[in-house]
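@channel sequence for tomorrow's demo:
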Amino acid sequence: MEIPDFFWNQKKLLTYDYSIVEKYLNTDFDFSEKIFNLSPYEDKKKLSTEYFKSILLGYNHTYIMKLLEKYGYNSNICLPLVNKWNGDIRVDNLVIISHPEDAEKICKRHIKKAPIFKSLLNDSIISTTDNEDWKNQRGDMNMAFLPKTTLSEIFPISLKRSSKCNELLKKMSNDYTECVNMSEFFLNETQAQLQLAMFGFSDDFEEKTNKKIRDVFAGINTEYLKEFSKDALNETMKSKGPASKLFHESVKNNNLEKDIGNIILFAFAGHDTTGHTLTWLIYELCQNSKYKEKLIKEIDNYWLKYDTPTYESFYELPFMTRCITETLRMWPALANGTYRELEKDEEINGINDKDGKVLLKKGTYCQVINWTRHRNPELWDDPDKFNPERNFKDSEIWDHKGFGSYNVQSERFSPFTYGPRNCLGKNFSHMEMRLILLHLFKDHDFILTSLQTKISKDPNYMGINTFTMGPASIGEELIGMYVDVFKRKTNI
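structure tokens (generated this afternoon):
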């Protein structure tokens, strides 16, 4: 049996026979078992097939949410997962952690990652299951993302690229006569930001590889990944960006598999999450004109005060911070959260509080999912409504005013997952998002196209969740969000 990998194209996924997974249930390949007060009371064949299908077609976040609507929003549940995480086909228990008290506890007490990404990313920092290896990589990589030193040094490069956004938007819209796929626009820009600022790659290398590597991540011409990995590693040796410097010593020490894993990780996660967040933000602002107008007013006032944006002045954009934070809550790019392997026995909440706690054995795979807590109506008022003025807790938003450096998180909110394995690139992401938004709204306004507006009114429109979660396209591509772009008349 062939199990789809990370980069199968959409046509193959749509024609795949998902019932094949049933052949592995109740065989020597099946290591899953029902756990009292944790396993849903569903037919195992139906449950395993539907869950497997939801993962590959990108709607597992809503599939799990529907189960929680039935069993309780704060329930943890155990599902049978067909996988090839360790190379061979198996059926394992995967415990989905949605209870707010258990989410942060699992992440802090059990640092070891489940081997979900090892087949693609080898022993990269996100995929290594060796805690000591992770600590060493984390210690080295921290230096590349320090907000008051490293990021402030590359700020001018990020600023320079952001200032070109409007030129590209004008070109993509054919001088404002055609609609624009904002997913394509933002993913192009965040890939460019990553290569030019974080890596210090040349303009020629960025222009040559930007579209081709993004196509790979969309399941198009995936054979290019090998070529890109080799060329990008060679480019790091000629570049002086903070991310490139991480590879200088490692390449010399011939850590090829680990270096390939990390270069692929950077190329994907270093742009995809930020690009999707910006796209979802435009999507929500187009449907909530009062918030869009409030953000534009804040941006106009900023430009009246500053001829050129500065890293230190981002605290003067508190409403932009609220808009970004609310987008991360409603549309977390990492909707799947993080995956862990328990390093010791652990007690968690089950489906029914009356039946008491559930004891999980060491070695159990857990997924601390973001989507279900971020949209939990018992944790948030009107969770499906975009409201950047909602009451965030102190730990959930940077100082309630602007730009910070600590990891925002709470029991109900973890857009960059929890420490200690929280996202390294969160501060760079926030920096480039603010610069891009400042330049875009300085001169432009956006409206969803009529077809995009019609689709957005469908309550089942909840994005497509693969590696990360982006908007399902109304066009031929997998990911897309279409808007009409207008020049603003301002006095700035």
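heads up for whoever presents: The first strand starts at residue 77 and ends at 83.
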